Amino acid sequence: MAAEPATKALGHEEMTAVIAEGHSFETVTDKISKISLTPTLPRQIILFGLIGLMLMGALMTSVAMLVVKGTGVWGINQPIGWGFAIINFVWWIGIGHAGTLISAILFLFRQEWRTSINRFAESMTIFAVMCAGLFPLLHVGRPWLAYWLFPYPNVMQMWPQFRSPLMWDVFAVSTYFSVSLLFWYTGLIPDLATLRDRAKSKLARIGYGMASMGWRGSARHWQRYEVAYLLLAGLSTPLVISVHSIVSLDFAVSVIPGWHTTIFPPYFVAGAIFSGFAMVLTLAIPVRHLFGLKDLITLNHLNNISKVMLATGLMVLYGYGMEVFFAWYSGNQYEGYMMFKNRMTGPYWWSYWALIFCNGVVPQLLWIKKIRITPLPLFVISIVINIGMWLERFVIVVTSLHRDFLPSSWGMYAPTKWDWGLYLGTIGMFMFLMTLFIKFLPIISQFEVRELLHKKKHANGHHE
Amino acid sequence: MMKTAESSRIYGLVAEFDSSEALLKAAEQVRDAGYTATDAFSPIPVHGLTDALGVRPSRLSSLVLMGGLTGACVGLGLQAWVSILAYPHIISGKPLFSWPSFFPVVFECTVLFAAGSAVFGMLIRNRLPQPYHPVFSTPHFEKATTDGFFLCIQANDPKYDGQETMAFLKGLRAIEVTEVERHPDDEDKS
Prior knowledge:
The structure holds 2 protein chains of 2 kinds.
Chain A: H1 5-10, H2 12-16, H3 25-37, H4 43-69, H5 83-108, H6 118-139, H7 165-198, H8 202-212, H9 219-252, H10 264-290, H11 299-329, H12 333-343, H13 349-361, H14 369-372, H15 375-402, H16 417-440, H17 446-461
Helix pairs in contact in A: 3-17, 4-16, 5-6, 5-9, 5-10, 5-15, 6-7, 6-16, 7-8, 7-9, 9-10, 10-11, 10-15, 11-12, 13-15
Chain B: H1 2-9, E1 10-17, H2 20-32, E2 38-41, H3 49-53, H4 60-86, H5 103-125, E3 149-154, H6 162-170, E4 176-181
Antiparallel strand pairs in B: 1-3, 1-4, 2-3
Helix pairs in contact in B: 4-5
């Protein structure tokens, strides 16, 4: 294979390696487990966790306020009944999708570079889905009655309406959370056993020992484990596509101009992966720096993540283009009004053009190889994309709703401080959970990295 | 009499090897020598090791298939029963059994049940959780989750003979062979 000039300048090894040279089973295991077994954390991570904890205070206050006073404390009104709750729900659940994509789809495609980021991304999925779940739960207004969403025999003799996409959402999101949790935990079992065997303190040994369920690496166990893991990957792949498709159907099944579009399911799935990979970068770039993991999360990883972002970003841009095209080509006056007179030039024009800037223009920088392998600009781009994907949901929810078919039922939407408190609060919860994860669990899948090393040794040493 | 008391105290012999290749080779020789009650322990799944030990392929995938089909039936059955019998309402002019709109929930239930069967099936068939196991008392066994490779011949193997099996394992270029005892509380069993 001919090395490109840009690759040569950096050193071919550095660019193509999914793991740096000179590592053994012992060194990689030690390097990763040390992070969990050292009692201290880098100061920046502690600060990160503390900010998260503080924002969680805002979360608690906002939830308390909502429970006491009701959804009237939010900015929602007629005709904008969805507001921040649905914007943030879709934003968070989209972020979660990258974790499943990395752990399941890239596993099935035998993409070796997934190994050092999959654990991290899977944890991100779990925490993001937890944040996402809060919003519809609180949006029902009386969250203590949220169990009414589930089909169960009750004295009211009532059953849910299974023809509604909102009901599909209940099943999709709860299945997604359960399966992601199972997948994550299954992947953790051998690593928790490693921590059990390396821990010095008795408490840690007992804790990790219980959590690892007495895993001992038996050949019989590994055999079933590998089957289970492969099947979980195979099951998660259609699941992750179904979840965001169903989320998009919440919109697309309605007859609201701006929502009623067949492009929605694929365009939502691509957007979810786009925002999720951006969040992976936002988190992975500081972590690889702070914990000295640059030889496990290499520049090659950053390059690959950027390429996925570029590809999914283009799909999203195609989605925006198609929305405009449909509005024009359908000849429907409401669709045309929604797109050209309302979204692009109406009172919320700034959100539409900011969205195009964040998700359409900025990601084009990723065509440049130098940017794909330089952490700082990548970090900035990833933040811009996170904001862009949030704006996308704002545009979809708010601009489509705020001008109803009759001008008498037009309105404007502005979030209140409790909306912001809840949103920032979930970001805090995410940060805090991430800190706990970094502290207590192996942030890179140790046994898979060992397996990768083993495979590499075989490829170099023997010719099979 | 002494001999039975002695052998019930012993769980088996555990040999340590320095690489997966050495473990794989040793496992093949142990199988060829006719031992059946054997197991191996490694920090990574070693491909071919279960074949070398003579373990049958896992049947977990058929369990997962059954789990998935059960989930599909539960999902469809629930919606059909609710929509036709328990709570029949005409919604947007659709028939009571409007199966296309039931598809998403059927799919989600399929995946949920199949994934649950995969994970819980794996754990139950592996008899986990099992916080204590006699092999944990093998010296250096903590390396089995980092870079140690171990092979065990259990005392309940019909071919097992303390001295002879020990000599055989040592002949397989093991780093160390240890006789592992059962936990005192476990001695009466089996």
